[in-house]
Amino acid sequence: MKEIRWHGRGGQGAKTVSQVLAQINLREGKFVQAFPEFGPERSGAPIRAYNRISDDEILVHSAVYTPDVVVVVDESLLRSENPTEGLRPDGILIVNTPCSPEEIRKQTGFRGKIIAVDADRIAREAGTGFANIPMLGAVAAALGTEWGIVEEEVRRAMGERMSRDMLEKNVAALRAAYEEAKGVGSVR
Amino acid sequence: MRKVMTGHKAVAEAMRQIEPDVVAVYPITPQSEIAEYYAEYVHDGIVHTELVPVESEHSALSACVGAAAAGARVMTATSSQGLALLVEVLYIAAGMRLPIVMALANRALSAPINIHCDHSDAYLARDAGAFQIFCESAQEAYDYTLIAQRIAEHAKVRLPGIVNLDGFALTHTSQVVEPLEDAVAKKFVGPFQPLYPLLDVDNPVTWGPFAMPDYYFELKRAQEAAMEEVPGVFLEVQKEYARLSGRPYAGFLEEYRLADADRALVVLGSTAGTAKVAVDALRERGEKVGLLKVWLFRPFPYAAVAQALGHLKYVAVLDRAISFGAMGALYSDVAAALYRHKDRPVLTNYIYGLGGRDITAEQLESVLLELSKVRPDEALRYIGLRE
User: Could you read off the pLDDT of A149-187 as tens digits, one per residue?
Assistant: First the structure.
């Protein structure tokens, strides 16, 4: 079983993409859980969301304490939220940042694999303004998920929420981050 | 087809397939998304249900009582303080023998204010006269909503029923659920047969009459007779559902690695899943441990519980609520069930998970490991509490 913890801020859509990731994993034939950290939801406040992915039925209903993957959607949380807490030494830290993995390593002290994706820049260039979709692309690549499934499920999940034009821009951002992260290797 | 959905959505899907005539809800915190999803189905014309938004949970169940007495198939959903407010009317629904099925998203009661999971609300409704089922997963919440509808409406029963699903752990967690095809679910539930409907004006009847000391007692005894029919109907309907769905449901209880165990946990709800992980981990290390999960909480299956636990040396009963000044409600039931058993196990009562306090597999392993060393007494023990 793989466990993922997302760090974002209210309104950035971390919870939304954690739910989309669950749909992607289901398409791969996996059993899944996806849940937000349960508390008052306020725009801009730090939030956490979680995924569990397994080949077998998932029975456990407790919180996630030792994730295999940590995703930081908002770089400022590196300083305030201690996002590497409990992250397995052989896990992956994925950060939305213009910095290099080495700089993130220095900042966090995390010794495992680090994927640095400038999702803000990707979102800006694609014209979407939301880093959550490119971060989902990076996570899917790190998990070794086939691109076709990622694209299809994002189109299915987001298609009703936005105009066709905006959807295409988001898929472009998704793809750019997916390709960027793909080379770094997966947790599987 | 397998889908990803929350427990709330799973219950709403079952309700969509049941498609009651009336759903009355008070759509505000502490309600559940079940009401929101159902309101959407009504708005989108997916179901032809009269959705009655009312001004309180007390009114929600009151509207359900009125509609059910009129001859409608009726459902609702509630949680926490909302359940507390409607309990008065739940006694009335049971006393009037109205088959209203209600999902209960289990959450703590105030004060202090808390929105997270425990079983205080279900325990509050324990003696109201509704049958109660607890679910381990969103899948079970879906399945048992359909099953509960059949039990409630069975001619021998005609009682309200509560389907309990743990707040957040089930209600807000997206997980894999495989619903039945609409046609299959609808056929399983079948058409509603109203009994003595108020709207049948050619055959006038009296509902909710006055009963003084000369009749009240007999009417309440008759109500208990209806409750006594629930176990038999439960088994019959569950068996039919198991055959239809392929799900491994058989009995009031799920016995997990219990047959050759010497120690076991007894739990309600989603903690059963986490407990299975704990049992598996200890079994790997050669420990003879098991789990008893209780599906049917009211009426309590005393004989089946005694049968399942009688051979064990030590049993920990876990309650997710304090019954202030008394042992836990589940513990008291299990103790009563085992009282007549000759070589009964040593029982210990643990309180856990109040107000959403997390319960982990490691903590449950510790409970199973310490059980043989715990001195048997009537003291409550607490899991994961700072003292």
Answer: 999 999 999 998 999 999 999 999 999 999 999 877 555
Residue B250 falls inside a structural domain:
no
Residues of B (53-92) whose Cβ lies below 8 Å from A: none
Which chain A residues are Cβ-neighbours of B273 within 8 angstroms?
Answer: 58-61
Domain count, chain B: 2
Is the CB of A23 inside 8 Å of chain B's CB atoms?
yes
B51 assigned to some structural domain: yes
Do B235 and B294 belong to one domain? Answer: no
Residue type at B328? Answer: G
Q: Do B293 and B156 share a domain, yes or no?
A: no
pLDDT tens digit string along B301-337?
Answer: 999 999 999 999 999 999 999 999 999 999 999 999 9
Per DSSP, the three-state class of B117 is coil
Q: What's the pLDDT tens digit per position in B147-168?
A: 999 999 999 999 999 999 999 9
Say whether pTM exceeds 0.90.
yes
Name which of A158, A53, A19, A7 is nearest B9 in CA terms: A19
Q: Looking at this predicted complex, what is its ipTM? A: 0.94
Nearest-Cα distance to chain B for A31, in Å, is 6
Distance CA B316, CA B345 (A): 10
Å between B4 CA and nearest CA of chain A = 6
- H/E stretch holding A113: strand A113-117
Distance from CA of A137 to the nearest CA of B (A): 20
Give the residue from chain B lying closest to A53, CA to CA.
B175
Q: Clarify whether residues B80 and B124 are in a common domain.
A: yes
Q: Is A147 on the interface with B (CB under 8 A)?
A: no
CATH number for A2-182 (one of 3.40.50.300, 3.90.1310.10, 3.40.190.10, 3.40.920.10): it is 3.40.920.10
Count Cβ–Cβ pairs < 8 Å, chain A vs chain B: 60
Residues in CB range of B94: below 8 A, 6 or more apart: B128, B129, B130, B159, B160, B223
Do B143 and B259 lie in one domain? The reply is no
